[in-house]
Amino acid sequence: MSSGSAEFNALLKLSAKVGSDPALVQAAGGNTSIKLGDVLWIKASGTWLMNALKQNIMVPVQLSPLLEALQRNDPAAEKAQSFVVARQNPEKLRPSIETTVHAVFPQRVVVHVHCVETIALAIKSNAKEILTPLLNGFNWRFIPYAKPGLNLSRAISASLYQNNQPADVAVLGNHGLVVAGETVTQVSDLLSSVCQALRQPVRSAPEANVAKLQQLSEGSDYELPADIQSHAVALDETALAIARKGSLYPDHVIFLGEGSVIAQPGETPDQVVQRLAGANQPPPVSIVFPGHGVLMKKSCSKGAHAMARCLSDVCVRVSEARAVNYLTAEQNDELLNWDAEQYRQKLNKQSNRKKPAGQPSV
Question: I want to staple 145 with a disulfide (CB 3.0 to 4.6 A). Which of 91, 173, 195, 349 is the partner?
Fold first, then answer.
């Protein structure tokens, strides 16, 4: 089976479909893979799944040497660049930071998404207890939060098998969802079934005060977000209470920074920036104005806009603000200072500039 096979093409179609659904994937997040012989074809770092049918986003990685490196704790397994099949990678794409996560699953096809339904449950302190009745009948595992990449791969590998049988569903604490199977159709169906099982009630937030936000943004470096759904975190009491307390999952930290910046009563964007500068903090990518909505830095990437919406989409699915598990200061720091993520951010700045913000009528 070659990379031009029907099954490979089916994976590209599924990748584009999944990547176009903001409830499953945001920005350059998420990844898909297929094992063809001893080659693992994995989404390239910094590329967007939604573009799978329009551009080359897949990288071939030699599987056996990668797994051997992972087993002996070889640091080369982290980036997986040393195991790329160079002759089949003319664009010199770099494998996803989650390549080893896909490698430890023995199934041929693996899909990893940042499903907002899953995250809304996976951030709870008692996530496994909540998930158990919802996933009854699935062959699943709960993996407590681990730094994406090698740490996560090892955590998955340690609990993947029971009675010599691997799970085909893994819920990742404060992160997302992985499903695996032997065919693309099987994985697509499994993904739909799991997401349906985890579906949560969604609270409807009041309308954003767009006029007030436009007034606040006038003359500043801030503007309305690309998606009107991004405002919900500022308008729903429970969502706002959750966002105030810290970071919930890795991609929020990568694209928006640690935690959420909440404006104080009466503050303008410039005053927020000045307040943070006084604490030696940079201008925020996103500012939440309680009761009004959200503003985004004009220079931020399209990925940042996608993550601003993700925050709202997750928080309006969490039933209460208590018993939420936040990333620690140390976990935030290791994400912000991680070379693999700095590379992904560089790609976003180069080729994934945001679309002009445009609000539908409210």
Answer: 173
